[in-house]
Amino acid sequence: MYNKGLYQDWVPKPIQLLLIVLLLAVVMPIGGVYTGNISYLVSGTGSMTEYFMWANYASTIGMGACMPIVLRMKMRFKVRDKMTLLLVMLGLLSYINSTTYEPMIFVFSSLIIGFFKMMVTIELFLPLMAMMGNRGMFYGAFYTFVLVLNQISAYYAVDISIRYNWQQFYIIVAVGCFALALVHWLLMHDKYFALKVPLHYIDWLSTLLFVSTFMFSAYVFSFGKQQDWLHSKKIVDASIAAFVSFALLVIRQLTLKRPYLSFKIFSKNNVLHGLFMLFCLGMFLGTTSIQNTFAVGVLGYDQLTNARLNLLMIPGLILAGVTAIFWFKKEIPLKMFIFSGFSAMMGYSIIMYFSMVLEFNYDYWYLPMFLKGYGMCSLFISVWFYTLDKLEMDEMLAAIGLVLVWRTFLAVGIFSALYSWFQYRFQVIAVGDLAVYLDGMTITPQNVAGNMKTVQLNAIIIAGKKLFGYIILAGCGVLIYVFTHHFGKERFEYLRFIRVLTGKSVIARRRLRERKKLIEEIRDAAGPAV
């Protein structure tokens, strides 16, 4: 007997919705590390920052590795058994992170947390999709909720780390997972979702090659600056290992009857253009490293104040979500919505370019962070919707892992690493240019320390302004590209009777829609998983 819901029939519907929201509130922000309190992890464990950046990337890689097999895992186990076990495992991993001082444990636990987290979240999207109906409206509501939740959780991770210690937040997360596991063991039904399917069709070697490809890549992005990129043998070896792993992964997919990944969707026009726009979004999201350097290094903000800046994005996130719901409800073409998102990101970059001065006031952050929040949320919703539009279930699930990793890891990781390296190089050049003022006639031995600090701060500002200047120039090209792109609009109109003759009958199309109803729900749910 099958049941496509989550809970027992006697559980009231409002309680079911409350439990789903509670699960989302606990599971969606969970990770091996939390970016806001990385500095406390560094000081508490005595390890380099790069290890925790690597662990942060590992969580996304774990989610991408799970995505191609998540449907088979969903249909293999009873929902109560699976959800309870996964929540217990997530709680145990969080507890392990709270007790360890070894950075590599954070890396591997983050990878496993991402893998398990994807299995949990896919269960929550289907009932929510059934309630919302419209895929675009669901994206608008869900992305807004998750992004707002991430900003709030990042803030409280820092707040709790300051009030108590960095271990305390992990313990709170672990307790929350254990409590939810107990509640869901009591309230969830004990039935399968659909026909039970075997697991022996899963190619675990391909999963291992997928993980190794991107974990080696994440090592390069995280440790590249610290080890001086190609001057380091470790970076060269990791780059070669990532390339070899990916080559073996591709070759293996060509020889399997049921491949773990499929590259067919990358020949579709909307997928290629969508990936390019996600790459451009990564260019803007990577500016977080420049912003943090300016806020902490120049303005002298503590970690809690710096985390509070992200809360200023919440009004922009909510506005983008409301706009998306209205946009999809009215079925307005996506072009101008995507254009507005990139325009908001351009506005953020322009304001930051002109505002990076030593006299920067905290009140000046409200407008740029509002624009950044609106741009990030609107582009996450609209570009992802456009990228996965009109894809078949088999095509989408077989390649969604690569798309997820591209959006959340590769695009942001590449630009974050580039910005970090260029900021260092530009800063060195700026110090050299400012050295003309460092002589005995202008700086006396008594005030040399204060003047050296001013020179250093100005060098950081100059490097940040240069980077934002290049981002603005590239952003102008992105806006031109979005404005001139057709976004799927037919360039030539055909007569209606030709379409009728070449298309399927009304009855056949109706049967096809009914058969794919569940498939489309699962496909749509895959979008917001990250």
TrEMBL record:
Looking up InterPro entries in the UniProt record yields: MFS_trans_sf (IPR036259)
Keyword Chloroplast assigned = no
SUPFAM superfamilies, sorted: MFS general substrate transporter (SSF103473)
Q: Where in the cell is it found?
A: Membrane
Which residue ranges traverse the bilayer?
51-71, 104-126, 138-157, 169-187, 199-223, 235-254, 275-301, 307-328, 337-358, 364-385, 397-422, 467-487
Q: Which UniProt keywords apply?
A: Membrane, Transmembrane, Transmembrane helix
- Identify the main location: membrane
* Keyword Membrane part of the UniProt annotation: yes
Q: Which domain of life is it from?
A: Bacteria
How does this protein lie in the membrane? Multi-pass membrane protein
Q: This chain belongs to which protein, by name?
A: DHA2 family multidrug resistance protein
